[in-house]
Amino acid sequence: MEVSSSNGVSDAKDTTAAGPGSDTSNTATSNSASEDPLIQYVVLRRDLIDTWPLGSVVTQGCHASVAAICSYKDDPDTLHYCYS
After folding, report:
1. pLDDT value at residue 55
2. Would you say 76 and 28 are in contact if contact means Cβ atoms under 8 Å apart?
């Protein structure tokens, strides 16, 4: 999780990516060194921080991230992202 702050308000985005060429024992396809890594960004609305506690805003972003992964749980790219 990467958190940056320019004026005391945090923006959070997930920049975790699986490394290319990782060995896996599942059915996911393996990325070659020439392919771009798969990255998931979580964008949080800054205007919600004025009315919601920061932890609640970040929690909603985490829930959205997990929901996106669950929606595509059988996709080969998602399997590689999660298990490599």
Report:
1. 94
2. yes
Full DSSP string of 5-40: ESSS-EEEE---BPPTT---SSSPPPPPTTSPPPB-
Instruction: Report whether 12 contacts 46 (CB < 8 A).
Output: no
User: Each residue of 62-78: pLDDT tens digit?
Assistant: 999 999 999 999 999 99
DSSP structure class, residue 2? E
- C-alpha–C-alpha distance, residues 71 and 58, integer Å: 20
The two tokens of residue 2 are 């990467």
- pTM exceeding the 0.70 threshold for the entire prediction: no
Tokens of 53: 């506690």
